[in-house]
Amino acid sequence: MPAIGEIVISGLQKVYETKTGGFEALKGIDLTVGSNEFVTILGPSGCGKSTLLRIVAGLDELTEGTVTVDGGEVIGPGADRGMVFQGYTLFPWLTVQENIEYGPKLKGVATMDRRAISSYWLKVTRLEEFRKAYPKQLSGGMKQRVAIARALANRPKVLLMDEPFGALDAQTKLEMQEMLLEVWEREKTTVLFITHDIDEAIFLSQRIVVMGAGPGRILKTYEVKLPARRSPEVREHPEFLALKREIAQLLKH
Ligand code: ADP
Ligand code: MG
Asked: What is the pLDDT of residue 3?
């Protein structure tokens, strides 16, 4: 019996057809993300991180291999997998509350229940005051909080995040990382997170998968042996600094 929210990627290969022939973006990817686990994929630009996440999301097709979520093969997008990207993919014509309620509304959840869901998420993401605001009235960090709330309002088993904080300023980014960990602790969804920021990867994850390019492949996997409950001070922890040094070294080659 596969666990709830377990992702199993095996023998994954992705070849993009281009004008000049096939381009191998991913090769021999084997990765299992356990139920409730927070795994980060870290690697330089162009190593295939987004391609991998899009395949798990069902937004892109694989060439060889299999991807399953809860034992079921991924054949397209589904409500079991929530997505948050770097770009703000909110609906500009909907208010914050309507954006959060969008998924439940599609599923036919009754108005009263939808209101309960959005109230909960507005509270968790500290957006209550902005419930009636439109995306263009919000800062980058707030928009990303709405995007996370909107993804989680569907109660996905898996949260897929592609550099969601990449466009934010340093301070906002740290705040968002803490908020995400709080949410993850509360919801216990499986998270597959992408970044090229080593500090972000170590702060957030239980396990870090480092990828390299040419073709995109897994170089090494690290367990993050830090307390489950992370406070900002964890960034000074000897284990944090040692891991940071080791990963930086690996990425240099
Ligand atoms: P990352 O997210 O790690 O920066 P991507 O997954 O976006 O990497 O891209 C991996 C490689 O695949 C890059 O070399 C990129 O140019 C190439 N690539 C991405 N999408 C396509 C596509 N639709 N057609 C052809 N090549 C692509
Ligand atoms: Mg990318």
From this structure: 59
Q: How far is the CA of 142 from the centre of ligand 1 (A)?
A: 28
252 CA from centroid of ligand 1 (Å)? 21
How much is the pTM?
0.95
Question: What stretch of H or E contains 84?
Answer: strand 81-84
Q: Is residue 86 part of a domain?
A: no
User: Mean of the pLDDT values across residues 91-110?
Assistant: 96
- 74 and 22 fall within a common domain: yes
Ligand 1 nearest-atom number relative to CA 216: 10
pLDDT band at 89 (very low <50, low <70, confident <90, very high): confident
* Residue, of 183 and 86, whose pLDDT is higher: 183
Same domain, 162 and 205: yes
Token match 């929530």: residue?
82
* Residue 28 one-letter amino acid: G
Residue 160 pairs in a beta bridge with 83, 192
> Which of 133, 155, 177 lies at the terminal end of a domain, its last residue?
155
Q: 137 and 45, same structural domain?
A: no
* Closest protein CA for atom 19 of ligand 1: 51
Same domain, 101 and 139: yes
Ligand whose nearest atom lies closest to the CA of 164: 2
Q: How many CA atoms lie within 13 A of 220 on its CB side?
A: 11
Tell me the CA–centroid distance for residue 54 and ligand 2, in Å: 10
Q: Are 62 and 14 in contact (CB under 8 A)?
A: yes
Residue among 13, 14, 16, 217 to mutate when testing ligand 1 (max atoms within 8 A of CB): 16
Over residues 176-215, the pLDDT tens digits come to 999 999 999 888 899 999 999 999 999 999 999 999 999 9
